[in-house]
Amino acid sequence: MIPQSAAQVEPLNLIKHSREPDDWRAQLRDAYRSPQQLLSALGFSTIQQASMIAEDQGFTTLVPIAFAQKMRPQDPTDPLLLQVLPQHQEGLAHADFNQDPLQEANYNPQPGIVHKYKGRALLIAAGHCAINCRYCFRRHYPYGEQKRARSQWQQSLNYIAQHHDIEELILSGGDPLALTDSQLFEIIGAIEAIPHIKRLRIHSRLPIVLPHRITTKLCQRLQQSRLACVLVVHANHANELGEDVAQACEKLRNHQVQLLNQSVLLAQVNDNLASLKLLSERLFTIGIMPYYLHLPDQVAGTTHFFVSLEKGQSLMALMQACMSGYLVPKLVREEPGKQSKTQYLPR
After folding, report:
1. b (16+ CB within 10 A) / e for 36-65
2. E strands in 168-319
3. pLDDT digits (tens, 9 = 90+) for 19-50
4. What does the domain layout of the chain look like in residue ranges?
5. Helix 216-224 vs helix 243-254: angle between axes, to the nearest 10 degrees?
6. 323, 284 Cβ separation under 8 angstroms
7. How far apart are CA 332 and CA 345, in angstroms?
8. What is the pTM of this model?
9. CA Rg, the chain, in Å?
10. DSSP bridge partners of 122
11. Superfamily of domain 104-344
């Protein structure tokens, strides 16, 4: 349960549930797919919308109703809204921001595989998400080019099978939980058939933005796997973690799925002590360990989210001074060519 002392958000009466709550695929189909739809549901007038909405820069709007309901009506500074609303700053070019800041193209031995670090590799299991976060470091990723490989994903798994040093496989995307159960379970079954794979790590934002995706059927399949299953969720602000998310996490924990969280440090969203502290506390309350706090990647179109390393280290020092150590995530950044993420200590 979420403690009553935590800030709660009144549900939006303007948003209607047109589907049964357990029909997560229908909920995804019903998601808001334009800024106008989203802002209208939040009670913004047509005049207000005109000043708030910018071109999507080729990265379309997608926001599930369940996530939008946690936003504050008529508040242009709402931290959840800022994560998904196209803003005028996205059109600003900057020499240090580009479409592939992590140089993943250099670690793409074949379509569908990203192999950067020893002992683990990443499989692009899906080319779509349930939500389009404006700061996404893969907002320019060529999913269309990878799609052909996903229809032949066994070729990607053959690469994994041939590299016996890989003990952990990461399902990413897009969002792997945006796949249907039959698609996801088929991939998991094929991974389980590779003897040297010991752990399956799933990176997903769906437990946060569309928690009804966490069905009993999914949890049972993960529990039955011979692999140690870890689900890394992605929450940036405590207001994302309502009772629906808490129930989904409880279901996962009851099926022996380990839960970790990775956040991104985002300007105007969570770049202050109060927000980060409440986020970690709320995560722990619902059974998720705060794991990573990522410095934002320098992706074209995301300059307005940027937070400096110095500020990140300062915030970490403040957190460390007032919180138990297990509640303080690691401040990290991915850097091309490094053998692991770079971790930064508080200053």
Report:
1. eebbebbebeeeeeeebbeeeeebebbbbb
2. 168-172, 199-204, 228-233, 258-264, 289-294
3. 444 589 999 999 999 999 999 999 999 999 99
4. 24-91, 104-344
5. 30
6. no
7. 9
8. 0.88
9. 20
10. 114, 170
11. Aldolase class I (3.20.20.70)
